[in-house]
From TrEMBL, chains A, B, C, D:
Family the UniProt entry places it in: Belongs to the Gfo/Idh/MocA family.
Boundaries of every Gfo/Idh/MocA-like oxidoreductase N-terminal domain copy: 3-119
InterPro entries attached to this UniProt entry: Gfo/Idh/MocA-like_OxRdtase_N, GFO_IDH_MocA-like_dom, Myo_inos_IolG, NAD(P)-bd_dom_sf
Protein name: Inositol 2-dehydrogenase
Keyword terms: Oxidoreductase
Coiled-coil features, chain-numbered ranges: none
A molecular function (GO) term: nucleotide binding
Domain GFO/IDH/MocA-like oxidoreductase, residue spans: 127-247
Database matches in PANTHER family: BINDING ROSSMANN FOLD OXIDOREDUCTASE, PUTATIVE (AFU_ORTHOLOGUE AFUA_2G10240)-RELATED, NAD(P)-BINDING ROSSMANN-FOLD SUPERFAMILY PROTEIN-RELATED
Domain of life: Bacteria
Natural source organism: Photobacterium ganghwense
Amino acid sequence: MYNIALFGAGRIGQVHAVNIADHKETQLYSVIDPFSQGTAALAEKYGAKQQSTEEALADPNVHGVLIASATDTHAELIELAAKAGKAIFCEKPVHLDIERVRSCLAIVEQYQVPLFVGFNRRYDPQFRKVREMLSAGSIGKAESLLITSRDPSPPPAEYVKVSGGMFRDMTIHDFDMARFIMGEDPVSIYAQGSNLVDPAIGQAGDIDTAFIVMKFPSGAMATITNSRRSGYGYDQRIELHGEKGLLTAKNIHENAVEQWGEAGCVAAKPEHFFLQRYDAAYKAEWTHFVDVLAGRAQPECSGYDGELALLMADKALESLKTGKEVKL
Amino acid sequence: MYNIALFGAGRIGQVHAVNIADHKETQLYSVIDPFSQGTAALAEKYGAKQQSTEEALADPNVHGVLIASATDTHAELIELAAKAGKAIFCEKPVHLDIERVRSCLAIVEQYQVPLFVGFNRRYDPQFRKVREMLSAGSIGKAESLLITSRDPSPPPAEYVKVSGGMFRDMTIHDFDMARFIMGEDPVSIYAQGSNLVDPAIGQAGDIDTAFIVMKFPSGAMATITNSRRSGYGYDQRIELHGEKGLLTAKNIHENAVEQWGEAGCVAAKPEHFFLQRYDAAYKAEWTHFVDVLAGRAQPECSGYDGELALLMADKALESLKTGKEVKL
Amino acid sequence: MYNIALFGAGRIGQVHAVNIADHKETQLYSVIDPFSQGTAALAEKYGAKQQSTEEALADPNVHGVLIASATDTHAELIELAAKAGKAIFCEKPVHLDIERVRSCLAIVEQYQVPLFVGFNRRYDPQFRKVREMLSAGSIGKAESLLITSRDPSPPPAEYVKVSGGMFRDMTIHDFDMARFIMGEDPVSIYAQGSNLVDPAIGQAGDIDTAFIVMKFPSGAMATITNSRRSGYGYDQRIELHGEKGLLTAKNIHENAVEQWGEAGCVAAKPEHFFLQRYDAAYKAEWTHFVDVLAGRAQPECSGYDGELALLMADKALESLKTGKEVKL
Amino acid sequence: MYNIALFGAGRIGQVHAVNIADHKETQLYSVIDPFSQGTAALAEKYGAKQQSTEEALADPNVHGVLIASATDTHAELIELAAKAGKAIFCEKPVHLDIERVRSCLAIVEQYQVPLFVGFNRRYDPQFRKVREMLSAGSIGKAESLLITSRDPSPPPAEYVKVSGGMFRDMTIHDFDMARFIMGEDPVSIYAQGSNLVDPAIGQAGDIDTAFIVMKFPSGAMATITNSRRSGYGYDQRIELHGEKGLLTAKNIHENAVEQWGEAGCVAAKPEHFFLQRYDAAYKAEWTHFVDVLAGRAQPECSGYDGELALLMADKALESLKTGKEVKL
C-alpha cells in the first residue's frame, strides 16, 4: 500500500482524493493545503493527516506526491519533491514559462525521480481507443486529425488574466492530444484567433475562439478548434482520417433518452464539463501512476511532454501575432 | 412504350401519374375519373386522354390499367379489366370483404391476366434491404420481428366509418410486411386494441391503437404496434432479430441538420407521411410492374397476397373480440 | 454509520459490497456465506467480519441486511431478519412460488420492518428519466409502452431448470418495469413464446424467446419482447408513446468511437451485460435504501411489488399454455 | 414554356437534361456537343434537336442556355450567349484564370443578360437549412464554421493536370459555401496541404489533402478540410457554431438500415458521390434558374460569386507557397 501526500484540497484535489482512496494499492496519507477551508474535512473523510509541505516531504512514510495546488506553485513543489526522492504526479502545467519548466525538469533529471504530468485526456477511453485502433492499423496511415474542444461557458476575466492565455491554459490539452494521437511532433504551427465570446477576455489581452493548423513530418496535418463557450455543454471530439477511413470519438451525452415530438427528436446535451466527462480518465491515469509507483511502468506522460505542449502553445501565440506559420 | 389507363385522379392517382410518365417504357395514355375535378388538368399535364371506363377497357391501345379509384370500386374494375385482357395494377385492397376478394380473384384467374396488388412498402429500399440481408444470411435464421407503424395524425371519423376498420385499412400493410420479411405465413394471431386517440373513432366502432402478436410455423414471432397518431410524423420502422444479431430499418428524417443548444441536441422529425416516406417505393413498384407488362417478371405481390393480408386482418379482429389467439 | 450484514458473497454480492463501502453512511459490517470460497477475501477487503446467519441476526450492531444469496433462501432469510428487527434489502425474487411470497410478506408485515426488493432497473438513470419526463407531462398521457429486453447469450440449461422459467426469472424485471413506467397495474396479459435459441432450454421445459402484451385500466397497452440471446450485447430499451410524442431510452454503448470505412459506419455494441449496464442503478438503489435505513424514505420497491411482478409472470405462463389473454 | 439549349452531353449535362425536362416550365430544346457520342441519344430521349453552337445562339426559340461543356469552353460560350441575348446557366467555374473571368464578366455586364453560376451546393437542402436557421437567429451570431469536404476516391492524375489544382477544382465549392453560410467575405486566408493520397498527384504538382483557415470582418473564422479520398464515400458536412449553440449538417447515408452483431452496430456509408448526394440540389438550382428566366428572381449565385471563389482559391495557393496568411 502506497501512501500519498496530496497538495491542494480544491476541486481537482478532491477528484484525485477519491481515486487514491478507491485504488487497492494506494491510500490518502496526508493533505497539504494551508489556503483551503476544506483541507481538514477532506483529510478526515479519508482518515488522512494534515501536513505542511516540509513535513510531508520529510516524512519517510510518503511514497508519492500528487500536486494539485495552484499553477504557480507546481514547479517549486516538483523540485522540492524531487530533492526529497518522492515519485511525483503533477497536474498540468509544470509552469507557464518554458524556461522555468526546463530548469525544473533539470532538477527532476538530476534526482532521478519519476514525474508524471497529468494530461488526463490521454486516459479518456474514447481517445485511447482511437489511438489503439490507429496502432492496430484499422485505418492505415494517419493523414488528418481534427480536434474539437469547446468549454461550456467562459471563465471569469480574473482567471483569464493569470491563466497564461488561452493557448497555454486550454489549448495545451489539445496540443498534447495531437502529439498523443499522431505519434509524432509537429514541424509547423499556424494559429488564428478572435475575441468573440466575452469582451472582458479581450480586455484582458486574450482570445476566446481559435483555429490552429499543424503539419507533421509525415505530411499529415491536424487542426484544433477551440472556444471558451459552446452553448451546449462540453464539446470534446476527435476525428482521425487515414488511408482507409475515419475513426471518430464522439461526445458522451448526459443520458440516452430521446424525446420525439412536434419539435423534432431531442437528445441530451454532452456531459457538462471535465469533471463529468473525464471521470473515467482521472481514474485511469491514477491507475497508471500506481504502476509507476510500483515500478511496473515508466511515466507515459513525462515532463518532456509537458514542456513540448507548452512550446507548441508558445509557437501558436507567435503565429497568432505574426500571421505566419511558425516552424518548430 | 406501354400505354396506361389510370383510374382515379385523386392524390394517389397523381403520384402514379408522375411515375408512369417518368418511366422510359410507359406513358400516361388516359385518365378515367368522372368524379374528380382534377381529371382534365391531370390528363392535360401529361398529354393524356380522358376516357370513360368502357372506352378505356375497349381501347386496344391500352396495355395496362392502374386502379387508384375509391376502394369499393376496385373489385369490379379488376374484373372488367381482366375480361378486357388488360394487365392490372391495383392499389390495395382488392375489397374489404374477403368473399368478394375471392370471387374477384377467380375472375382474374379465369382470364389469365397479370394482377399486381400495390403493397408499396415491399418496395421501400429500407425494408427491402432488410429482406435481402436476411436472405443473404447476415443474421442467421429470423426469430423476432417488430413492426412499428404509426400515422402522424388520425383520419376523420367519416373516413374511419367506411375504412373497414383499422386492421383492414392500416394494419393490412403491416400484415403484408410481416409475410414479406418472414417469408412464411403466420399460424396464429392475437390482437389487443384501444380507442385512445380520438373518441369519434371509438364512436364509429373502431380502435386507433393496437398491438398484434403473430406466430409462424418456424417458431419465429412477430409483433405489430399501431397508432393512428404519433405526434412526431410518420413512424415506419422494423426490427428483425435473428440468430446472430439484429437488422433494423430506421425512419427517414426530414433533413440531416441538428441543432445543439441548451435544450439538447435537436434533430428533424421523421418524414411527415406516406407520400414523402414512400416516394421511392412508389417509383420502384412501378418499375416492377413495367417488368410484368414486358413479360420480364411475374407480379411479386399478387391477388393472393392481397387476400391473405385481408384474412390476417379479419382474424385479428376476431381475436380482438374474443380475447383469444386465433389460428390460421 | 449503518452496519450492513451481507448474505451471499457471489457476483452480485460483490457488486453490493462495493456500493455499501463507498456510501458515506454505510459500511460492510459482516459477510455471511458458508458456501462461497470468496467469503473470507471479500470480508478482508472491506475490513468486515465473517458471521453465521444466527450471529448476524443476533448482533445488535447490525442495522440492515442485504440478501444476495441463492434464490431459494430469500424467503426464509427475510422472515428471520424480520423477526430480528433488521431493515431488509433483498435481491429479487422473494420466492418463485407466490403463496410462499405471500406468507413471507405476512411475517414482514407482522414485524413491521422495512423491506426493499431489488428491482434495480427502476434506478437506471435512463428509465427513471423516462418516468420523470412522463410525470412532467412531456408527452401527455401514456398510451403504448414497448420494452425490449434481450440477454447477450443464454444461461446454461442447468440454471434454466431451477430458474422458475423465463417469465419468473427474466421477464419479471420487465413486468416490474411496465408497472413502474405506466403507474398502473395491468388488467390482462397475453404471452406467446418459442424455444429458438438453445434446444436444451426447450428440453428443460422452458422457452427462450417471448412476446407479451398487457392492457391497463386506462386503455393503454404495453408489450415486452424477450430473448435469451441477442448476438450484440445486452439490449435494454424502452419506448413510451403518449398523446404528444415518444420518449425512448436507448442502449448504453461500450464506447463512443465510430469507424467509417468501406464496410460502413461501425459503432460499438451495447454494454455487455447487467453488471456493466446497471452499474449506476445498483449504486442508486443502495442510496435509496440508505434513505430507508435513515428513516428519510419508505421502500419505493416493496414486497408487494415483488409479489405483483411474480403474479404477472404466473399469469403470462397461464396465457402461454392456454392461448388466451388472462385477466388479473 | 422556356426552351433550353444544353451545351455538353456528358455526365453533368445528362443530370441537367432530366431536370430541364421534368420542370413544368422548361423543355430541352436542343443539345450541342460535337465531341460526345451520346449527343444524339440524349436529344432523342427528350425530343430535342441537335444544333451547332452558332445555330443554337442564333435560334430565336432558345430562351436560355445551360453550359455544361468542358471547363476551358465556359468563358467563350458565356460571351457568345451574352452577345446573343440568352439567359445563361453555367457550371462552375467560369474559367481557371481570374483575369479571363473578369473580362468575360465585363461582356456579360455589357449585354445585360442574367448569368447564374452553378454552385449547386448552395441548393443542398441540408446546407440551405443551416443558412436559414442562422438567419432566423437560432444560434445567435455565427462564430466558427467547419466545412468537411472529402471525395470518395482521387481523380486520375491526367485530370489533376488540367484541373487548375485542388483549390480551384475542388475547394472552390467550399470557398463558396463559406461565403454562402457566413454572409460575409473573408479578410484573410491560410492554407496548408500535403500530397498523401496518390504520388501521381504530387508528381503533377498538386496536393490532395488540405486544411484552410479563414477570418472574416466580424472576427468569425472558418476552416475547410479537404481530401481527395475518404475511404467511406462522399463526406460533405458543415458545423456552424454560434453564440447560443451549434448547427450541423450531417452526411446523407446510403440507407437507414443498421446491423447489430458481434462486430458492433454497422450503418451505411454516406452517399457515394455528388450525383447521389446533390441530386436534390441540382433540381433546386434549376428551379431557381427558371425563376430567373421568368423574371421572378435575380441570379442568387452570380458571376461575381464565381470570381470571388476563384480569387479565394488563388489566395489559398499563395498562402500554401509562402507559409503566411494572405489578406484579401
